[in-house]
Amino acid sequence: MTSSIITNRIRSVSDDDEEIIEFLMRRNRPRVFQNRIDHINKWNDTEFFRRFRMKKPTFMYILGKIENTLSTAKRITSITPMQKLLVALRFYATGNFLITAGELVGISEPSACRIVQQVTYALAELRPDCIKMPQNVEEIRQVSYHFYKIAKMPRVIGAIDCTHIRINSPGGENAEYFRNRKGYFSLNVQTVADANLQILDIVVRWPGSVHDQTIFLNSKLKTDLENGRFGNNLLVADSGYANSQHVITPLLQTNNRVEEIYNESLIRTRNVVERQYGVWKRRFPILSFGFRIKLETTMAAIVACAVLFNITRTHDGEEPPDDYEARNFILEQEEPSQTPVHANSNQQFTARNRLLNDYFPSLLDGNGQ
């Protein structure tokens, strides 16, 4: 299409039709193929880790898991699976605009958008293999043993909590459901962590206005606990959850030394999920800065970041860079505790009550310490 034809078309539209004008002009732009950097060979291990939040061997391991899904036709200008994964990782690592992630490997913003979406869903499909509660008696024993070593809390197989992930307003008549109590739009994401900060379970579908307890009550995890899948083992939680046969929370007020020991043990044990959120968000700062992509892809991206987090915890071991700006932003976004869930009439039958009566008194020595 010649420039004169485009000019004539532009003159024929209203001055208010800026989107149409931009579209017509964009169609006539010549395609430009930028040089693409070989980031694997360009950076040493430290610099690569800083930019992509994982070591090179871990990157290659993840690439091997999703390479077939990301493969494209073999053309000179085609974007390789390796480049696609680099773009997505850079997007997760910076929490920046897609145009910035695309420029990293020399591709356009529309291409970066499609690539991030493709990689995100490919990574999210790894969830069944990478995010799972203990599957058998031996795994349950190992998880509870590591929790016991923290502060002698018995039978714990996970620490549960929720965190808010900032999103753009999804629009529509239900948009306000996503506005949380701090006034911004978010998803309230529930995770369960083990003593090594691995994510054992994740729920990513609830608006920011929904209470933590509501999310748990409607989760498959609650059903599994009640059906005896994990025996008589427990989750530790904060006061935003209700005490039950399988969930224990701190006492809001202590009256004796046994209750003080119980609270201290539970708080130290439950702290792993708070640490998990801090390390998770430092490794992938987009979880703190927020997502500017459509809601469905955002949900998948949060799961993808959880998958990547578990893989890097297993393969890297190294903590993510302590970026000063990202750390301060995370601290500023910390949510206050939710309104405590009041005890119900069957409180005497909860696991917490049994621990207070039968287990924690035995930890006291003759001096009451």
Automatic annotation (TrEMBL):
Pfam families: DDE_Tnp_4. Belongs to the HARBI1 family. Transmembrane segments: none annotated. One of its GO terms (cellular component) is nucleus. InterPro entries: HARBI1-like, HARBI1_dom. GO terms for molecular function: hydrolase activity; metal ion binding; nuclease activity. This is DDE Tnp4 domain-containing protein. Signal peptide: none annotated.
